[in-house]
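yo

u said u wanted the structure for the complex thing, so here. seqs first:
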Amino acid sequence: MFLRLSPITRRRLEKFKRMKRAYYSFWILMILYVLSLGADFIANDKPLLVRYEGKFYFPILRFYDGSHFGLSASEIPNYKELNRSPAFQKQGNMMIFPIIPYGPNESLLDLEGNPPTPPTWRNLFGTDDRGRDILTRLIYGFRISFSFALFITVCSMAVGIVIGALQGYLGGVFDLLMQRVIEIFSTLPFLYIVIIIGSSLGTGFLILLLVFVIFEWIGISYYIRSEFLKLREIQYVEAARALGVSGWKIMFRHMLPNALTPIITFLPFSLIGAISSLSALDFLGFGLPAPTPSWGELMHQGLGNIFSYWISLYPVLALFGVLLLIAFIGEGVRDAFDPKEYQRME
Amino acid sequence: MPLLEVHELTKCFPVQTGFWKKNSMKVRAVDRVSLDVNAGETVGLVGESGCGKTTLGRAVLRLIEPDSGSIIFDGISLTDLSQAQLRKIRPRLQIVFQDPFSSLNPRMVVLDQVGEGLSEHGFVKSRREKEERVVQLLEQVGLSADHLYRYPHEFSGGQRQRIAIARAISLNPDLVVCDEAVSALDVSVQAQIINLLRELQQRLNIAYLFISHDLTVVKYISQRIAVMYLGRIVEFGTTQELFDDPRHPYTEALLSAIPVLDPEARKKRIVLTGEVNPMGTGQGCPFAPRCPKALPQCHHEEPPLQWASDTHWFRCFL
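structre next:
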């Protein structure tokens, strides 16, 4: 299906490309995300390359104990200290640091004044209340929140698609029971549940993921259910049944590809929802455990240091920018999938 | 023994009315229908729209579950089979639908649509074999290997119907239900498709249950014809008998509506009055309210089954 795109899909892709705002937003976001996946090479307190006594070392890729650099073997080398030490300052030894030479959890101890310090040429976006570089934390925070949101969306879509598809295809008692379960789930207040679970079971990555998925799949299952209810009556589905094709194959080969429109148009908006609720949770302190870099956590600090504008301004701008980009993409996707233009083909 | 024997088949659909949906009534879409189809034979099924022809066709294949009655296919009782057993026998019973635009999946190429059943039931082992067999099938229905990787929207209505026929015959079926298979096509294309169906029947010895509302088409293709009115079969006989000697007033009315070329030979058209009420009273003959020859007992007594000949029966007091 993905190798030989059907003509409908091809037309939709072309239409999406023609919508410049959405198309460029898509590429900007993709480039930002790919860059953030390589965040370790952009912002790190470890050097990219060390040349010591004629040998090369790559501390980001591999761990070296202190013995490599003339320290004791039980010591974890602090490369910045090492760089300044007289033993290192010899001919031929050198270190190359990434563009932003700070780690996400590194407290800068040599700042002028007390943290949080305002933006300077050294720290473009300033530092937070523990002296950590905000730009670095924004980059790492983007990687975590976007990956997390993608993960949640994909997992919840998978669950929502399977349950919605079964409801629509089987109908009857299963549909009725699942519909009641969904009603119960959708009345539970999401944030409270997360907070209650977070305070009793702790806030781990997996627990958070699980709770998110439990709530997120409901939205998509409605769409899939109604699409499948509609498609079940269509003749090519009946023809497949008459051929003796098995239920799963009918559902996933005949019905799902024809029910993808709501899933794909829903996807960007579901991403937006996931990113913003994760930020909200981090803001409240019930998100990913500290010291994970996160935008919500920065905003929380911003609230505590209300006069240090840079702590709250940059994460808010970053969040706004990313959500706007995704919203543009979502808008473009929705237009590209608008069935009115292709009524003859559908 | 006939290939297909349908006995007292019934399918009702509930109709709920009122705010609390309590006064549920039933539409008897198929009402105690008995029918038989011999191997290699075409049985036409005619009736006006909404009389349950399509429901009957689908119930015979158990695409919708009948409420009661039995379907014996080649000695096997289809109504007693589990879904898994049913899937195994599916290749022998196929269907061609009315609308060639919705009967093909818009996202699958011809090869995959026609070849799906082949690989599903292990008729072909490899992709290559599937391709070869699908090309054979396409050639049988008047298409060619060039069409293998095309999508349905690239074809005309007649060509799409040919693809649907190729899909139906791909598993060497014994019986194909043609559900208004030519009704959505132009008259010239209709003739091509009907001739194709006849040709395939002769070559592959397929039996057809040919559902249509068009008497001339049914007359042309069928050996025997069943006339249906509101879920009931009111008359069943060979084409010859039915056209020469219609016994049921509804059949008479239908026949009188066929346009005749020769003005001298024109008969008086029987125009039916009244409206079709599918809810009905459930009593007496369903046709009684509109029947020009209705007797008093028609309204509350079930008309008896009468035999005009060994092969021709009808349900009427007359």
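The interface with chain B takes residues 1, 4, 6-9, 234-236, 238-246, 249, 253-254, 257-258, 344-346 of chain A (CB under 8 Å). The longest helix of chain A spans residues 134-170.
cya
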